[in-house]
Design brief:
This protein is α+β, with helices and mostly antiparallel strands. It contains 20 helices and ten strands. A hairpin with a 2-residue loop joins strand 7 and strand 8. Helix 7 crosses helix 9, helix 11 packs antiparallel against helix 12 and helix 14 runs antiparallel to helix 15. The longest helix has 27 residues.
């Protein structure tokens, strides 16, 4: 009865998936009347901006590879942070660890299925690494393409004696997988390219039934509970892969339930050398938990001579412990902010003093949390989409754009100076909009810099500023509209 129920649920979900796929891929807009077309013309600019934002912000988690590689490389991408490199998407080796564990628990009694899984794993390895990143010595990350591989291979030929062995080995491995992937990409470009209406049917009607079939053959002799848990993991993982754009926090349930499933499998009695598999699984989980703890209490993002100094994030520890100095002054919230963002406190006080009649234009910062009445005063334009539209509308006329901002009630602009670093688009559209914004504020008489942590050299002395001989890029800048 239980197996029948599971099959009915899976078939029903598969039908819903198929309907969704055809609606997404093949649905064509109905012919509109002249009035509707006129209304569409009015919002065409908004629709274009929205589409551009999705492409720049959401798709950067998924990547911009050829389809269907974009979807199939998700386990590698989210493990290696190949697309988005930041602490908030760091999950260690969780996603990829399930593939070798499947090979460990094995297909001893079903060798043909085992060889099939190994072949699929090798295929995923090839297409993922060929579209991924290479982590070199001191956490230097390079994108894999023909130019970077040729350059690194040339460097190897020039300095074999000084080349780190791991770098030497990995560059050759990635070069091999890139060469193997090239004919695969040519085939994919012929049949799919950038078109989802080819990829979605392939994922739904080929990949999902294939994975389900392998899982069914592997688990058909197991208990109903284990089967249900495994099918649930597969279904949720598949939905996450197709519809969550590779954003890792939407897939946390996959990893949690997978751990439960693995624990349930390893709870059975093993004999002989196989018993050590259970201890290996437990050991891997404990190692990952320890490494995660170190990551969360540390601030190590670059390996240099001072890396050990940042093993603990000192300002956070001081604030949480309520540390006091020799005069008895407590390490306050303002002290904490000052340690991370020099000069920010003074600017925030000015912004909050004018809290009743001024709006704040925020571009990719987390500072709205510190602004009073931020639900009423803050306008978020995190990727400069609307600001670029305004620049285009007024031909980048600095005086006129300032007057437009003032007319709408804006008095302050907050900007993340590292915004361009999140740009993963092939066209580098976010970077270009960032450059256009910098050109707008450069020597603009209507803008006044009131705070930044960027350091520039002025008269042979370091000073906080925006333009000149930049010594430290900084993370933020706040401008007041005069």
């Amino acid at each position: 009865m239980t197996e029948r129920f599971v099959k009915i649920v899976l078939v029903s979900v598969s039908v819903l998936l198929a309907v969704t796929v055809f609606q997404t891929a093949y649905a064509q807009p109905k012919k509109n009347t002249a009035q509707v077309e006129k209304q569409q013309g009015k919002i065409k600019g908004q629709a274009a901006i929205q589409k551009e934002l999705i492409f720049e912000e959401i798709q950067r988690y998924l990547g911009y590879e050829t389809l269907p590689t974009r979807y199939l490389s998700i386990p590698y991408d989210v493990t290696m942070n190949a697309n988005v490199d930041a602490y908030y998407v760091e999950i260690g080796f969780l996603m990829l660890m399930f593939i070798p564990l499947m090979l460990l628990i094995g297909f001893r009694k079903k060798p043909l299925i085992g060889f099939g899984v190994m072949f699929l794993t090798l295929f995923l390895f090839v297409i993922s690494t060929a579209n991924g990143i290479l982590m070199k010595d001191k956490l230097v990350r390079i994108a894999i393409n023909e130019q970077t591989l040729s350059k690194d291979l040339s460097n190897i030929d020039a300095s074999k004696s000084s080349m780190d062995f791991v770098d030497y080995f990995m560059i050759h491995v990635y070069n091999i997988t890139y060469q193997l992937y090239t004919p695969i990409e040519n085939i994919l470009l012929t049949f799919s390219g950038k078109k989802d209406y080819v990829t979605y049917p392939f994922l739904v009607f080929v990949l999902f039934p294939l994975l389900f079939g392998i899982l069914y053959l592997f688990l058909k002799e197991r208990s109903s509970l284990k089967q249900i848990m495994a099918y649930a993991v597969l279904l949720f993982a598949f939905l996450w892969m197709m519809f969550a754009a590779g954003i890792i926090w939407y897939g946390y349930l996959v990893m949690a339930v997978s751990f439960v499933f693995m624990a349930a499998f390893f709870s059975k009695k093993f004999e002989g050398p196989a018993k050590y598999i259970k201890y290996a699984f437990v050991g891997i989980v404990l190692i990952w938990l320890c490494l995660t703890l170190v990551l969360r209490i540390s601030n190590i993002y670059n390996l240099d001579q001072s890396a050990g100094v940042h093993f603990f994030d000192a300002p956070i520890v001081k604030y949480q412990l309520g540390e006091t100095d020799k005069k008895g002054k407590k390490f306050s919230e303002e002290d904490l902010i000052q340690n991370y963002f020099p000069g920010l406190n003074t600017a925030l006080k000015g912004i909050n003093r004018n809290g009743n009649d001024s709006y704040v234009y925020s571009i990719g910062t987390m500072f709205p949390y510190f602004v009073k009445k931020n639900n009423q005063r803050i306008f978020n334009d995190n990727l400069l989409a609307l600001f670029q539209a305004v620049l285009d509308r007024y031909n980048s006329d600095k005086v006129e754009v300032v007057q437009v901002l003032k007319a709408f009630g804006f008095r302050y602009i907050l900007i993340n100076l590292k915004l361009h670093k999140i740009d993963k688009t092939p066209e580098k559209s976010v970077t270009q909009k960032y450059i256009n914004f910098m050109n707008f504020i450069y020597q603009n008489p209507g803008m006044e810099l009131i705070a930044t942590d960027r350091l520039i050299m002025v008269d042979e002395k370091l000073s906080y500023g925006m333009f000149g001989d930049i010594k430290s890029e900084g993370s933020y800048a706040i401008f007041k509209i005069k």
